[in-house]
């Protein structure tokens, strides 16, 4: 899993700083989602306390929100092939990523 941003909201050169990640609006899945659990674990391990959060119910709507510039998120790169190819979403280098998770 990778931190992803919209093409116009690049974090290049500053994404490894927890304070910079805290300033971002985070788009995440609903409570009980495995993806959300991974993101919350990432926050805890990196001492990140997001100031703004948007909760959406599917990976597709999260990707659309990111493309629209509403915020950033943590998603599996396999779900991003099209968007990465079209350069509508970026995967900046962020300390602590990628995060590995086995499917349940």
From TrEMBL:
<keyword id="KW-0805">Transcription regulation</keyword>
<protein>
    <recommendedName>
        <fullName>LysR substrate-binding domain-containing protein</fullName>
    </recommendedName>
</protein>
<dbReference type="Pfam" id="PF03466">
    <property type="entry name" value="LysR_substrate"/>
</dbReference>
<keyword id="KW-0804">Transcription</keyword>
<comment type="similarity">
    <text>Belongs to the LysR transcriptional regulatory family.</text>
</comment>
<keyword id="KW-0238">DNA-binding</keyword>
<dbReference type="GO" id="GO:0006355">
    <property type="term" value="P:regulation of DNA-templated transcription"/>
</dbReference>
<feature type="domain" description="LysR substrate-binding">
    <location>
        <begin position="11"/>
        <end position="101"/>
    </location>
</feature>
<dbReference type="InterPro" id="IPR005119">
    <property type="entry name" value="LysR_subst-bd"/>
</dbReference>
<dbReference type="GO" id="GO:0000976">
    <property type="term" value="F:transcription cis-regulatory region binding"/>
</dbReference>
């Amino acid at each position: 899993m990778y931190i992803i941003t919209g093409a116009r909201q690049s974090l290049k050169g500053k994404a490894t700083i927890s304070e910079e990640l805290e300033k971002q609006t985070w788009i995440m899945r609903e409570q009980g989602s495995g993806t959300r659990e991974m993101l919350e674990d990432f926050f805890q391990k990196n001492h990140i306390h997001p100031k703004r959060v948007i909760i959406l119910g599917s990976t597709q709507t999260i990707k659309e929100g990111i493309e629209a510039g509403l915020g950033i998120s943590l998603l599996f790169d396999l779900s991003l092939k099209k968007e990465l190819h079209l350069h509508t979403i970026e995967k900046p280098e962020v300390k602590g990523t990628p995060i590995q998770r086995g499917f349940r």
